[in-house]
Design brief:
With 90 residues, the protein is an all-alpha fold. It has one domain. It is 80% helix and 0% strand. The protein is built from two helices and no strands. The termini are far apart.
């Protein structure tokens, strides 16, 4: 009889411990996963920030880079240049 009580108490307290700690453990795992995602996002944004700083530096200091960007984005041409645009429709 004493052995049955001991087993019952063990199962009872084990169940209580599971009920108390399992939600916290699940939340901890979820937060760890979110933390990983945030770290990846931070890394991506830091790399993108470096690229933007390089472009800004080029725009401030390199006239050839400015000319290249103006030609690409605004379609600016030099005096006397002939513009050729291929037929994109097939």
């Amino acid at each position: 009889m004493e052995k049955k009580k001991l087993i019952f108490y063990f199962i009872f307290f084990s169940a209580i411990l599971c009920v108390l700690f399992l939600p916290g453990y699940s939340q901890l795992q979820k937060l760890k996963e979110e933390n990983k995602e945030h770290k990846k996002r931070i890394q991506f944004l830091q790399e993108h920030n470096v690229e933007l700083e390089e472009e800004l530096s080029n725009l401030r200091e390199d006239p050839d880079y400015i000319e290249k960007k103006a030609r690409e984005k605004l379609g600016i041409v030099k005096k006397g240049e002939i513009i050729y645009r291929g037929n994109s429709e097939k």
